[in-house]
Amino acid sequence: KLLPANILKLDRTFIVDVVENPQAAIIATAIIEMANAQGKVVVAEGVETVQQAQFLRRYNCARAQGFVFSAALPPEQVPEFVREREREAAVVPMLPELKLTPARRAFGAA
């Protein structure tokens, strides 16, 4: 049976202790695998640590949001934030020695 949506949000309650708690990791990876198998995009919410972001990346979670990437921004600051990230994405592959903040290292500069 298919999920009736194209995007599946993985709530922060599944993320908060995913690195330390094996049961949380099992649940999170099962959700990600099920969604990926059906061609859905998974967005993890509430990612607060680099370790959580790395875990999600390792298990093919397509997208993530949370304080590890950026604090909440007012709408008028979003375009500049996106432009800055796009500039970084263009530079990072050519300059691997460039030091990035932990948030940007977690999922690359994208």
Mean pLDDT across every amino acid position: 81
Apparent shape: globular
Q: What is the share of helical residues?
A: 40-55%
Spatially, the strands of the biggest sheet line up as 1-2-3
* Class from secondary-structure proportions: alpha/beta
Roughly how many Å apart are the termini?
32 Å
Order of helices and strands: EHEHEHHE
- What percentage of the residues does DSSP assign to strands (E)? 5-15%
Radius of gyration: 15 Å
Spans of 5+ residues with little confidence (pLDDT < 50)? 94-110
Number of helices: 4
The largest sheet, given as strand count, sense and whether it forms a barrel, is:
3 strands, parallel
Please tally the β strands and state the result.
4
Task: Explain how this protein is built.
By secondary structure, the protein is of the alpha/beta class. 40% of the residues lie in helices and 12% in strands. It is built from four helices and four strands. The chain has helices at residues 22-37, 50-58, 78-91, 102-106; strands at residues 7-10, 41-44, 63-64, 107-109. It has a three-stranded parallel sheet, covered by helices on one side. α2 (50-58) links the parallel β2 and β3. The longest helix is centred in the N-terminal third of the chain and has 16 residues, at 22-37. It starts with 6 loop residues before the first strand and ends with a strand.
Secondary structure: elements and pairs:
Blueprint: E1 7-10, H1 22-37, E2 41-44, H2 50-58, E3 63-64, H3 78-91, H4 102-106, E4 107-109
Parallel strand pairs: 1-2, 2-3
